Amino acid sequence: MKLSAFWKGLFMALVGFIATTLSDIETFNIAYVGISTVAFTIIYIGKNYLFPSVSVVGIDLQDFLSGLVLAVGMGISSFAGQILTVGSLDWNALGIAVVGALVGYFVKTAPSKV
Length: 114
Hints:
Oligomer: single chain
Strand content: under 5%
Number of helices: 4
Low-confidence stretches: none
Number of domains: 1
Largest sheet: none
Mean pLDDT: 76
Distance between the termini: 16 Å
């Protein structure tokens, strides 16, 4: 995997997460966003090291599996951020974080494969 593709994918996934998080909150929780972002970045780096997306044309099974790993990773990092900063779980915020990261990942992945 090219290094520039790695950074572009990470950036798009994080932008998707942060944009959807900001669009659905009444108050901005910087600690939650920081914890979730750092945890998700670690998960993204690990995913790309162990399971890089290398398909040439279109989105293939490996891309879908990568998306699944990122969805689970964002769920875990968002869960941790909520528990550590608020002390409770907001299922709506968790879902929005996961969808935002997935959309960001596939927005980057789909066009780069065509």
